[in-house]
Amino acid sequence: MKSPFAPDDDALREAAAAGRPVPSPCISVCQIDPHTRLCNGCLRTIDEIASWGGMNNEARLSVWGEIRRRQGSVR
After folding, report:
1. What pTM did the predictor assign?
2. Do 2 and 41 touch, CB atoms closer than 8 A?
3. CA distance 74 to 67
4. What is the DSSP string of 9-31?
């Protein structure tokens, strides 16, 4: 299920193209599921969460792509 607050893919690409930071998917529901090893709130791995601040926009867009893929298989 997609969060109603998540930006759509066009908005993410527009932010990157304009040189603005691609926004974090964090929705302040920070719990790692022991089975999937994904955050229940944003569907990122702990490594993706920890690395987010140092990622460039290209890497952030890649993580968003993984989140979109995970949305279809996890929820």
Report:
1. 0.87
2. no
3. 10
4. HHHHHHHHHTTPPPPP---S---
